[in-house]
Design a protein that fits this description.
Blueprint: H1 14-19, H2 25-35, E1 38-43, H3 47-59, E2 63-67, E3 70-75, H4 77-86, H5 91-105, E4 110-113, E5 116-119, E6 125-131, H6 144-156, E7 161-165, H7 178-194, E8 200-204, H8 208-217, E9 221-224, H9 233-239, E10 243-247, H10 266-283, E11 291-294, H11 303-311, E12 323-325, H12 331-337, H13 345-358, E13 360-365, H14 368-380, H15 383-386, E14 398-399, E15 404-405, H16 408-412
Parallel strand pairs: 6-7, 6-13, 7-8, 8-9, 9-10, 10-11, 12-13
Antiparallel strand pairs: 1-3, 2-3, 4-5, 14-15
Helix pairs in contact: 4-5, 6-7, 7-8, 8-9, 13-14
Length: 413
């Protein structure tokens, strides 16, 4: 009896690696490219142009359909390249589709943050949260010495970055002046740098003046939750050759307006917003390899939309930037499970896993050690990573003489 099977892998490049066990490199690459065909979509000028674009794509071997101005296609880069060469009248549309498809297929390799470079191709990295505010919803840090201790622990637990926040964005907390925010953040930045802790410093602020003060002190990245509400922020980041997180938000920070949190196509709106704001950041001088995007879970969204974002998270890859996921112990998880923030570790880790599988490469979290282990396990299954992993001869904690696992009680004795 004959049977057939499929070849698949968790890592985007894993299928080609598997195929090379059986085929030569060119044949493996050709099959892998066809396997990795991606659905791409675009809105064009009018329905007539949409119909003509579909015909051009189909003529080059793609599958394409349209409705009104909306065009969707499943096409490989090779098919899109053929269409680009044959149909000059659709050069703009086909180029946009090609960029989206290639971005989705090929993960961004690095994130550059001043003098630091973070590889973001194979493994997600953890950003530990360090809130130096009196009103944050979870794990507030009081005092510079305590903040340094927290940063040191984050680094020891495997965090690549620490995100320092001096302003709570919860709607029940008022906005504070830039001077007060600086007075909270600056001593912490200076103390962590003086302590020579090997971790990149992110500053959670939307204000250009706060960003400038922190960057002058040595911070590496500005995590802006406002979507560039301050028109001067991007230029400040560019001046210091630092990195910038651009987040989607509907509405304003510190303001809750549920009636305004309605979406037609949520991810379409989020991606268009992020495209516009990242283009603005680049025009202000921020380097492409120094930009991160964040869909802004819970910022101008209700749980229904947050869940939709998690379900469609991979669509963000079309923009071509590393993606930050910030969901740790957030209230939308508490509202879904009916639990307080203190009881949301497992849902937070599950959300992080969903994000990593869909392409998240930065995870902003409260629970650093647990999330680092989660990210390392996801990375370990990729072909490139598992070839470099060393492991113990036997599982730690086993009684070598008896050959049986020791009990917790025996280990403690």
């Amino acid at each position: 009896m004959l049977f057939a099977r499929i070849l698949t892998a968790t890592d985007p490049t894993g299928v080609e690696t598997r195929l090379r066990e059986y085929l030569n490199a060119p044949a493996a690459a050709a099959l892998a490219q066809a396997k990795q065909a991606t659905i791409a979509a675009i809105d064009v000028a009018d329905a007539q142009r949409a119909t003509a674009l579909v015909a051009a794509l189909v003529a080059c071997g793609a599958v394409a359909e349209c409705s009104g101005r909306f065009v969707a296609t499943v096409a490989t880069p090779a098919q899109l390249a053929a269409a680009q060469a044959r149909y000059e009248e659709f050069a703009g549309e086909i180029q946009a589709l090609t960029v989206a498809v290639c971005n989705a297929r090929e993960p961004v390799a690095i994130l550059r943050m001043r003098d630091r470079t973070l590889a973001v191709c194979d493994e997600a990295h953890v950003m530990g949260i360090l809130n130096v505010t009196p009103d944050s919803f979870y794990e507030r840090v009081r005092g510079t010495k305590t903040a340094v201790d927290v940063a040191r622990r984050c680094a020891a637990d495997g965090a690549a970055l620490v995100d320092i926040g001096g302003q709570s964005y919860a709607h029940w907390n008022p906005r504070i002046a830039a001077e007060e925010e600086c007075s909270r953040v600056l001593p912490v930045v200076e103390a962590i740098i003086a302590a020579k802790i090997d971790v990149a410093l992110s500053i959670d602020t939307w204000k250009a003046s706060v960003a400038r003060t922190a960057l002058e002190a040595g911070a590496h990245l500005i995590n802006d939750c406002s979507g560039l509400a301050d028109p001067d922020l991007a230029a400040v980041v560019a001046q210091y050759d630092a990195a910038l997180v651009v987040m989607h938000i509907k509405g304003e920070l510190n303001v809750r307006s549920v009636a305004a949190y309605t979406y037609g196509d949520a991810m379409k709106e989020i991606i268009e917003f992020l495209y516009e704001r990242t283009e603005s950041a680049r025009a202000a001088g921020v380097a492409r390899e120094s930009i991160v995007i964040d869909p802004g879970l819970e910022f101008g969204k209700e749980p229904q939309t947050d869940l939709e974002i998690l379900d469609r998270f991979g669509e963000l890859r079309a923009l071509g930037y590393p993606i930050l996921l910030a969901a740790s112990r957030k209230s939308f998880l508490g509202r879904i499970f009916g639990r307080p923030a203190q009881e949301l570790l497992v849902p937070s880790l599950a959300t992080a896993g969903l994000g990593i599988a869909a392409g998240a490469r930065l995870l902003r979290v409260h629970d650093v050690a647990e999330t680092v282990a989660l990210a390392a396990m996801y990375a370990a299954v990729s072909p490139r990573r598992r070839e470099t992993i060393g492991w113990a001869d036997r599982m730690p904690g086993r009684d070598e003489a008896a050959g049986n696992p020791r009990s917790r009680r025996a280990v403690e004795k």
